[in-house]
TrEMBL record:
<keyword id="KW-0332">GMP biosynthesis</keyword>
<dbReference type="GO" id="GO:0005829">
    <property type="term" value="C:cytosol"/>
</dbReference>
<dbReference type="GO" id="GO:0003921">
    <property type="term" value="F:GMP synthase activity"/>
</dbReference>
<keyword id="KW-0315">Glutamine amidotransferase</keyword>
<feature type="domain" description="GMPS ATP-PPase">
    <location>
        <begin position="2"/>
        <end position="195"/>
    </location>
</feature>
<comment type="subunit">
    <text>Homodimer.</text>
</comment>
<feature type="binding site">
    <location>
        <begin position="29"/>
        <end position="35"/>
    </location>
    <ligand>
        <name>ATP</name>
    </ligand>
</feature>
<comment type="pathway">
    <text>Purine metabolism; GMP biosynthesis; GMP from XMP (L-Gln route): step 1/1.</text>
</comment>
<keyword id="KW-0547">Nucleotide-binding</keyword>
<comment type="function">
    <text>Catalyzes the synthesis of GMP from XMP.</text>
</comment>
<dbReference type="GO" id="GO:0005524">
    <property type="term" value="F:ATP binding"/>
</dbReference>
<keyword id="KW-0658">Purine biosynthesis</keyword>
<keyword id="KW-0067">ATP-binding</keyword>
<keyword id="KW-0436">Ligase</keyword>
<protein>
    <recommendedName>
        <fullName>GMP synthase [glutamine-hydrolyzing]</fullName>
        <ecNumber>6.3.5.2</ecNumber>
    </recommendedName>
</protein>
Length: 321
């Protein structure tokens, strides 16, 4: 019978055996899996692990701090942050097609990450690459029968084949709930361990239309308000996730204060799900919806309308792009 602490003990020993006195690199996304994988490896080899975090500018409010401050405080890990915000904005300028956006973000991410690896390799002998691959990821990429490619998924940390690293995948036999328990056992903060799913391409695929700095700031502000109110209402555990989507190319007339406005709508997309393959729209309490709507339209100047997505998956996907 495996207990969480025996999983930790066992994995720490295996990682130690695999890496010996070598050095390892781990890409952090801000998500649960890469954080727990990194924390396990850190437990095993200490400061011979270096984590790399790419800020692509498509993160939600507070996510960079969560990695730079909270994750580092909890683990003491060596962290290199790469500020690639301008590079991603330039690459995405004017692009509206969802698949095009996904490809650009995936491509730029790999380029930035590879450069970071080359820089690290120049400094020390890094032979190992840590990945937060879970059991369901292993099963999915092996099988795949009948799975139509609906969206090209970009996983931060998904890497090209020609890299000369040996992979370290300490979560390969675990399911998500086990990974969360391991994270807690390792002392990671709840904000990281209980984080809801967030797509690799980030806010880039939640702006319907071209991505630019101003639109990102608008969406980040609206998203933060929605998250604050859902958390305050104690709903984090009962919803799977709640994307907030900015319809950047749509405008509608409104009245705010005593003036006419011509602003953008945001869409709330609260969903309930077991595994994201299918989902139902979550019946959020009206008073919570009201608070979110009032606050967004009061506090985010560019937004004058909040709408609710009441589509299940299928036919709608969870993300809009
Ligand atoms: P869809 O929109 O396909 O999303 O119903 C299903 C789940 O996957 C997340 N998602 C992604 N996660 N990289 C990821 O790591 C991606 O490119 C990506 N696209 C969607 C989405 O948030 C939902 O939980």
């Amino acid at each position: 019978q495996w207990t969480t602490s025996s999983i930790v003990e066992d994995q720490v020993k295996r990682i130690g055996d695999q890496i010996g006195d070598g050095r390892a690199i781990c890409g952090l996304s801000g998500g649960v899996d890469s954080a727990v994988a990194a924390a396990l490896v850190q437990r095993a080899i200490g400061d011979r692990l270096t984590c790399v975090f790419v800020d692509h500018g498509l993160l939600r409010a507070g996510e960079r701090t969560q990695v730079e401050r909270d994750f580092v405080a909890a683990t003491g890990v060596n962290l290199v942050t790469i500020d690639a915000r301008e590079r991603f904005l330039d690459a995405l300028a004017g692009v509206t097609d969802p698949e095009q956006k996904r490809k650009i973000i995936g491509r730029e991410f790999i380029r930035v990450f590879e450069q970071a690896e080359r820089d690290l390799k120049a400094e020390g002998d890094y032979k190992f690459l840590v990945q937060g691959t879970l059991y369901p990821d292993v099963v999915e990429s092996g099988g795949g029968e009948g799975t139509a490619n609906i969206k090209s998924h970009h996983n931060v940390g998904g890497l090209p084949e020609d890299l000369e690293f040996e992979l370290v995948e300490p979560l390969r036999l675990l399911f998500k709930d086990e990974v969360r328990r391991v994270g807690l056992e390792l002392g990671l903060p709840e904000t990281i361990v209980q984080r809801q799913p967030f797509p690799g391409p980030g806010l880039g695929i939640r702006i319907i239309g071209a991505v630019d700095q101003e639109r990102l700031d608008t969406l980040r502000a609206a998203d933060l308000i929605a998250r604050e109110e859902l958390t305050a209402a104690g709903l984090d555990r009962s919803i799977w996730q709640c994307p907030v989507v900015l319809l950047a190319d749509v405008r509608s007339v409104g009245v705010q204060g005593d003036g006419r406005t011509y602003g953008h709508p945001v869409v709330l997309r609260p969903v309930s799900s077991e595994d994201a393959m299918t989902a139902d729209w979550t019946r959020l309490p009206y008073d919570v919806l009201e608070r979110i709507s009032t606050r967004i339209t009061n506090e985010v100047a560019e937004v004058n309308r909040v709408v609710l997505d009441v589509t299940s998956k299928p036919p709608g996907t969870i993300e809009w792009e």
